Amino acid sequence: xxxxxxxxxxxxxxxxxxxxxxxxxxxxxxxxxxxxxxxxxxxxxxxxxxxxxxxxxxxxxxxxxx
Length: 66
Description:
This protein is α+β, with helices and mostly antiparallel strands. The protein has one helix at residues 29-63; strands spanning 4-12, 18-27. Strands 1-2 form a two-stranded antiparallel sheet. A hairpin with a 5-residue loop joins β1 (4-12) and β2 (18-27). The longest helix is centred in the last third of the chain and has 35 residues, at 29-63. The radius of gyration is 27 Å and the shape is rod-shaped. The mean pLDDT is 93.
């Protein structure tokens, strides 16, 4: 499976009939994979920060003098 970015333009005659199509296709598969990897890292980082905060709060409760 590949991801492709396509851009183009249709040139038409006076009657509106298409004469030609000019465009370009760019393979963006690697960019998509890199973006997905970055999203996964950001999610894991957020989860790590949340776990750290929870552990900190639990430690504060355990250290509270009775």
